[in-house]
Automatic annotation (TrEMBL):
<comment type="subunit">
    <text>Homodimer.</text>
</comment>
<dbReference type="GO" id="GO:0005829">
    <property type="term" value="C:cytosol"/>
</dbReference>
<keyword id="KW-0312">Gluconeogenesis</keyword>
<keyword id="KW-0963">Cytoplasm</keyword>
<comment type="function">
    <text>Involved in the gluconeogenesis. Catalyzes stereospecifically the conversion of dihydroxyacetone phosphate (DHAP) to D-glyceraldehyde-3-phosphate (G3P).</text>
</comment>
<feature type="active site" description="Electrophile">
    <location>
        <position position="94"/>
    </location>
</feature>
<dbReference type="Pfam" id="PF00121">
    <property type="entry name" value="TIM"/>
</dbReference>
<dbReference type="GO" id="GO:0046166">
    <property type="term" value="P:glyceraldehyde-3-phosphate biosynthetic process"/>
</dbReference>
<feature type="active site" description="Proton acceptor">
    <location>
        <position position="166"/>
    </location>
</feature>
<keyword id="KW-0324">Glycolysis</keyword>
<feature type="binding site">
    <location>
        <begin position="233"/>
        <end position="234"/>
    </location>
    <ligand>
        <name>substrate</name>
    </ligand>
</feature>
<dbReference type="GO" id="GO:0006094">
    <property type="term" value="P:gluconeogenesis"/>
</dbReference>
<dbReference type="GO" id="GO:0019563">
    <property type="term" value="P:glycerol catabolic process"/>
</dbReference>
<comment type="pathway">
    <text>Carbohydrate degradation; glycolysis; D-glyceraldehyde 3-phosphate from glycerone phosphate: step 1/1.</text>
</comment>
<dbReference type="GO" id="GO:0004807">
    <property type="term" value="F:triose-phosphate isomerase activity"/>
</dbReference>
<dbReference type="InterPro" id="IPR020861">
    <property type="entry name" value="Triosephosphate_isomerase_AS"/>
</dbReference>
<comment type="similarity">
    <text>Belongs to the triosephosphate isomerase family.</text>
</comment>
Length: 248
């Protein structure tokens, strides 16, 4: 049985003081649940959130990482730096990283391999643009991303992977893939994993949907058979909204 997993992606929002205020309010709202929960926050907030959520089941994730152990990479953060803080998850290959910061399937692959050397679980983001969907290339694009991103990664590591399907046209736009569209792509991702690694491995991989997930649509999305969770953007910035999604 895959345990549902709801993760918030704060993107470039919240100062340290704002993050602590969020954590204090969210801890009051949070209750024991069968749903795995995490906040993926800016680097400057990670240590404060780990301290604020100590003693709870709420996990903390980073939004990016470099694949090198150390070196002349100004502005970057290494896996060991995240491990020292106690980070639980790390987003890799988000479409905004791919679009604005030159992330490629090759660098995503290197980051995944580096993360799999330690305890931090990667959340791999894949998804197509509106132009690619309208050209009937969505499955080719997503399938190609998965195959390239997982090149040379063995089955034992893939079992620990979280994949977030985020159609680029639904991120921060207010548009959401219909539950049927999201289910269709998540089922395709599962099928691709079966082809690459077999059914036993595929059955253990958590597949999330991300893209304008809100309290109003979370239940319908989460009730789909192949969708195991959600990567939540804007709604994760408000404790009450985020808790409503977790309570789907």
């Amino acid at each position: 049985m895959r345990i549902p997993f709801i993760a918030g992606n704060w993107k470039m929002f919240k100062t340290k003081a704002e993050a602590i205020a969020f954590a204090e309010e969210f801890r009051e709202l949070y209750k024991d649940t069968d749903v795995q929960t995490a906040i993926c926050a800016p680097f400057t907030n990670l240590e404060a959130l780990k301290e604020a959520f100590a003693g709870t089941e709420i996990k903390v994730g980073a939004q990016n990482v470099h694949f090198a152990d150390e070196g002349a990479f100004t502005g970057e953060i290494s896996v060991s730096m995240l491990e020292e803080i106690g980070v639980d998850f790390c987003i890799v290959g988000h479409s905004e990283r791919r679009q604005y910061f030159g992330e490629t399937d090759e660098t995503v692959n290197k980051k995944l391999k580096k993360l799999f050397e330690g305890p931090i679980r990667p959340i791999l983001c894949v998804g197509e643009s509106l132009e690619e969907r309208d050209a009937d290339k969505a499955f080719d694009v997503v399938g190609g991303q998965i195959k390239a991103d997982l090149e040379g990664i063995d089955a034992a590591d893939v079992k620990k992977l979280v994949i977030a399907y985020e159609p680029i046209w639904a991120i921060g736009t207010g548009r959401t893939a219909t539950p049927d569209q999201a289910e269709e792509m998540c089922a395709f991702i599962r099928k691709t994993l079966i082809e690459l690694y077999g059914e036993e491995v595929s059955d253990e991989v958590i597949i999330q949907y991300g893209g304008s997930v809100k309290p109003a649509n979370a239940t319908e999305i989460m009730n789909m058979d192949e969708i195991d969770g959600a990567l939540v953007g804007g709604a994760s910035l408000k404790p009450k909204d985020f808790m409503e999604i977790i309570d789907f």
